[in-house]
């Protein structure tokens, strides 16, 4: 099965709203699913008005998930929140991800799409030094997918969770650009 990526467009918003409402996604993303909320929160990136990138994950051409990719330098508030836990070097990037289709979870797609979007990041962003990903410690499936994709735990500490029902305790994972190292 081949994984490809393309920029999320406004035509994808109904699909994204459906995914955000799926219990396995809603538990961790905790996002409003109304058309207005999806348009408000994902529209600026889709239109190129915001520096983050929302990438639709396609499995053999069929939409399967979403990856958000951003530079910490473009979101200094997140960089400041993370800095007490791990060093955030110049060029550091982050990703967030979801598998939208329930039938595609638990099949190894998560680690594959993470590894492939990181490889794509090295090609798309020559100044990217590393990818640093915080994940709430209770989300074992997410941090195990990061480990299987080759990221290593670089720190742990308190960060604001996406879902207010979660504890603030997070694990922070990191992978460096090949050949660059720490």
TrEMBL record:
Name a single GO biological process: response to antibiotic
Listed InterPro entries: Acyl_CoA_acyltransferase, GNAT_dom
State if Membrane is listed as a keyword: no
Q: Name one Pfam family in it.
A: Acetyltransf_8
Segments forming domain N-acetyltransferase: 3-178
Q: Which PROSITE patterns match?
A: GNAT
Q: Which UniProt keywords apply?
A: Antibiotic resistance
Highest taxon, organism lineage: Bacteria
Q: Which GO terms describe its molecular function?
A: N-acyltransferase activity
Tell me the PANTHER family matching this sequence: LYSINE N-ACYLTRANSFERASE C17G9.06C-RELATED (PTHR31438:SF1)
What is the recorded name of this protein? GNAT family N-acetyltransferase
- Provenance organism: Sphaerisporangium rufum
């Amino acid at each position: 099965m081949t994984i490809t990526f393309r920029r999320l467009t406004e035509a994808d918003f109904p699909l994204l709203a459906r995914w955000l409402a799926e219990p396995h996604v809603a538990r961790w993303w905790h996002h409003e699913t109304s058309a207005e909320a999806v348009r408000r929160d994902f529209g600026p990136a889709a239109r190129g008005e915001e520096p983050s990138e929302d990438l639709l994950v396609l499995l053999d051409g069929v939409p399967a998930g979403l990856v958000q990719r951003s530079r910490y330098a473009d979101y200094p508030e997140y960089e400041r929140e993370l800095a007490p836990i791990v060093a955030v070097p110049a060029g550091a990037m982050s990703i967030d991800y979801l598998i939208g289709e329930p039938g595609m979870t638990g099949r190894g797609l998560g680690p594959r799409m993470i590894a492939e979007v990181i490889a794509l990041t090295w090609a798309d962003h020559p100044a990217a030094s590393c990818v640093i990903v915080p994940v709430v410690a209770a989300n074992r499936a997410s941090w195990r997918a990061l480990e299987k994709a080759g990221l290593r735990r670089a720190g742990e500490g308190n960060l604001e969770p996406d879902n207010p029902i979660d504890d603030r305790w997070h694990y922070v994972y990191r992978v460096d650009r090949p050949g660059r190292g720490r």
